[in-house]
Amino acid sequence: METTASRIYKQIKGRIVDGQYPSGMRVVEQSIAEEFSSSRTPVREAMRKLASDGFLVFTPNSGTVVRSWTADEVRELFDLRALIEGEIADLAALKISPEEVSQLEKLQEKIETLVIGNAANKLAEISGLNREFHQIIARAGKNDRLLLMLAGAIEAPIIHKTFRSYSDREMQRSLHHHRELIDAFIARDGAWARSIMSSHIHAAKNSLLGSR
Fold first, then answer.
1. Which pTM value belongs to this model?
2. Final residue of a domain: which of 66, 81, 114?
């Protein structure tokens, strides 16, 4: 059963990811409690978890604010992802099942349908499908240690905003990377998969940095 604290956590996290709560915005405990018709205890619990997960920051002068990310922090995070996901893609190329490849193809078709339809209001849906695409690859690698390392990198709130920074050209490049990854998996070529995944993550990094 969902608790009040978990419900508040989910709602506030969603607003941060969607950009309704921009970086640096102050989040006031009392206001949240009033909005959710809640006591301050579950709000405090939700905000502590949001802070521990990197969505909020407690500052002496401003109170609790939505976390901002420096360019160096973005580079470090995406460089870490490129290393981990590149290794996972290499492993996945040797271990992925035909069923998982089929799942990737179906997800990619859904993403491309939304993009071709110029579904600007569907960015959240596209982002969700993209996360699912990467999760299938991560599981296909069958390495629990790498999965644990990856979890910390991909749950950072800045990751969820990547697609919002893409130009049409950058979006098409991302789609091409996905298709080439699928080709590498079909070919069982780990080096090819690693190379494309690394390029995919570094391209996302530079698109995000260029939009800041």
1. 0.79
2. 66
